[in-house]
Fold this protein.
Amino acid sequence: MHPVLTLVIQRLALGLLLLFAASILIFVGTEILPGDVAQAVLGQTATEQALANMRAQMGLDQPAVVRYFQWLGGALQGDFGVALSNGRDIADSISRRLGNTMFLASVAAVVAVPLAIFLGLLAVRYRDRWPDRLISGITLTSISLPEFLLGYIIMFVFSVQLGWFPSVSNINAGMSLGQKLNAVALPAMVLTLVVLAHMMRMTRAAILNVMQSAYIETAELKGLRRFNVIARHAMPNSIAPIVNVVMLNLAYLVVGVVVIEVVFVYPGMGQYLVDHVTKRDVPVVQACGLIFASVYIGLNLVADIVSILSNPRLRHPK
Amino acid sequence: MSDSDPLLDIRNLRIEATVYAPGEVPRNAVIVDDVSLRLERGKVMGLIGESGAGKSTIGLAALAYGRGGIRLTGGDIYLNGREIRTASPRQLRRLRGREVTYVAQSAAAAFNPARRLMDQVIEATLRHELCSKAEAEKRAVELFRTLSLPDPENFGKRYPHQVSGGQLQRAMTAMALCPRPDLVIFDEPTTALDVTTQIDVLGAIKTAIRETGVAALYITHDLAVVAQVSDEIMVLRHGKMVEHGTVQQIIEAPREDYTRALISVRAIEHEEKKPTQEPLLRAEGITARYGAMADDVLSNVSVDLYAGQTLALVGESGSGKSTMARVITGLLPPRAGTITFDGKPLPPALKARSREELRQLQMIYQMADVAMNPRQTVRTIIGRPLEFYFNLRGRKRDARVQELLDAIELGEGFADRYPAELSGGQKQRVCIARALAADPKLIICDEVTSALDPLVADGILKLLLNLQAREQVAYLFITHDIATVRAIADSIAVMYQGRVQRYGTKTEVLNPPFDDYTDLLLSSVPEMKLGWLENVLATRKMESAGN
Amino acid sequence: MKGIPLTALLGMAITALFFLAALLAPIIAPYGMSEIVGDVWEPASADYWLGTDNLGRDLLTRMIYGGRTTIFVASAATMVAFTLGAVLGFTAAVYGGWVDQVMSRTNDLVMSIPTLIFALVVLSVMPVTLPILIMVMGLLDSTRVFRLSRAVAVDINVMDFVEAARLRGEGQRWVIFREILPNALSPLVAELGLRFIFAILFISTLSFLGLGVQPPMADWGGIVKENREGIVYGIPAALIPAVAIVTLSISVNLVADWALNRTTSLKGGRGV
């Protein structure tokens, strides 16, 4: 078998193992409380009888290992059980909201990724001159702000002061794409700004790293045009680090979405998760946690596989 | 442009750079000052000097190129009759890769890892539209053949990581020659190679230069190497020209003291000591490997070292000589074999050794830079073994530190310096003092002079010899450099692929009859004689024809 | 103080100012923390420099007390993260072998779940009190410190001067505290600054989501949460913490940048 294939399969297996371990961690994370879930749901004042009923209903009288595998088995078939707070099917609620979250994240990614790579290249091209300094100044500021505050600042300026976009991003299935885009404009803008800063800084660093290699000097000493030096010599070696940067930041975006959805009251996974953390609705929290972790692990996996595939030493073994 | 014009004419060149010393305000430094040189068509000039002489900088100036922050601030550079120092980037792009090309010291870094060799070799030729792709590839294959690369037809299909270091260096030469330039800059092209590889690459480069009739600037720190390929030599020091002349004049009748010093380097002699009764260190049947699954790096190595004498372990990279040091120090317990020290068996693992056993066996490293904690003063560095082994403290310790500093010929005031405030040679001296502080019977010297300039290295070797005469300390001297071995060894073990290939007193090992490998190794060491390279290569050709 | 660039000095001064204000909050705050002094969302005036909040409390007072809580929680969490992360990271690097393997793989696992999500999962079943917040934040953040300090220590551990100390027969204590630590200090100090900023942003986010500092205590994230309804009416009270957070973050960043730049390579580094 080709060594690259072996490595990719190994990496995939490792990813699955990691996912499995992460599911255990999430499950255990909700088991370490003083008291138990029933207590958490019903509060300190609950009677013994009510607690016992609740435990039986949730299967808490069974050992943790059994409950874990029941939960995992269900999750693998798309069954996350019902929410404690309102008795609704969790998978149902999630499927609608997951689509909304993906829509918001994709809009942000479609704008942010090309823009970040372009600006990163610009910063390299005008290194240590004013465009570079301006870009790094702005990124430093936006990195220094929590996402939710950036959200309110943008809401204050573009919605309240200028009145360009709605301050609450409500979307539903009946809306046209244009209406949807208008609704998510502000949260997407905030998310874009948040990941843009990180992605640009990292792209800049990755390309600078490649540009300082000796083979770039060789290319320049061949009399190649600047464009050809970058296109033929820098790019083939920059793909892996840039894909890495993009994936890392998309993973970051998945987390940023949680807070931004709360700010703009957007009906997505993030708001769903935060709502149910407040309500101490453990099955919902576990389900959402598992989904967020899977996306995060999956994106990191893609980054690793791309760097394996783009490594000439691995692609063309001796 | 007329034919009487020289190809390259550099007049009063001045090169400056901004130096960013840590914690200091950036300052301007003059790297090259008032250097002039003329190179006729088809001639080869050697630029020689120690580190900091500005030789690479001058080489790159012939392409009007300054590496990271280096600026060509004064003088004129005429190439083919045109001034290029002040030429526009556009003009320079038309000239680089066409009229003048460059061969870097590390071809491994200078080739793009993501592209096939052929694409890179013919890239400049195609960029300057000198001929069609098919013709360029044909020329590349011819060059591969001239440079005796294996399977020249298919060599270009490989990626840089798929060929050896010596082959890559030759491929870089092919890349430089492919566009038929007027001038090639060779920047230490063989320095990173093992000596037996160096001679082949050197021969290939010389053949290629002769057959293409190209002119060259050949930059190196090794006078013996440059004498083989050049017509004339320029000696540089601290960015200034010291001397310029034909090869013969420079090596046979140098005018300047500095040139004479460079030529007489490694000419240290000392009287060979004979083996005494009992060896101080006896290693028997040492077999070792890194990790349980790996192959043996050392197999069945046995050597003896006598008190107050020097045993040299000589070999090329991968011969296992440094692994032997790790085994003796206890960092890598062997799979088989025993070590006897001072008549008693030495525990194989470091942790099992007593403080007294550790004290008697000290080590000096190749890179003095990283062998000292940058956050400790010289006083702490040398003083710590005194505290640790002899419980010397306070004034007594400081007095002993000063004694040791005197012993390594560094005066007052060095005790409170940090390593960063010392020169390369001074750092290595402090490391020697740290080893001496333990009052050891044996010091392992791992390539201790390899990172130093020849004159500085000479100073260190002389110091080591003096200290041996005075303190009766034995050295296990690990090196790849035959000249160093000649200077310092009493007995020699030649290592090859993890085995002792040849072992005996210096006289025995360095005199015939030789085994094949030792013969190859010894005959590959460049000698400062005109025609040495041709003679060796011709002899080898005859021998292989005879077989 | 000589040789410290102006930006770093400025950063230090402002950072010190913030910590001073946090320490002296009861003395310098014009009103009581939960004292209702005026109408809801009064604009800035001579009495209320920053105006009043959604309940008519003085915003400047809330900001000062809020800073006290935010800075205290962030500092404590950073301390926990550093003590734990650095000690474990150094241990893993110096011992190597399976000890390192087990510790590093466990760390990778915890890092494979996004910090915020992990914190939300845990906080969904834990009572939200300051000690628990500090522990959860500290534990989660210690994974980042572990990774950095292990990497730094591994780099230093393979240097010849560390090997020289081992060959001399020095014990682990000398190796860790005298050979490795002094050389790892600069990157760790820079990281300390970055982790502290991260902790400030993190506790603010948690409080904003209602899962951090609980009312009636004030903290910067909470102030945003309490006053966010005002935004739609054009009342910028909720944005005031932004100014404080940005100022503090940039100041700490300037100091951290300087500390990092001081980290010259081990080869040519000055010991002073």
The interface with chain B takes residues 213-215, 217-225, 228, 232-233, 236-237, 312-313, 316, 318 of chain A (CB under 8 Å). Residues 82 and 220 of chain A are 64 Å apart (CA to CA). Residues 226-263 of chain A form the longest helix (38 residues).
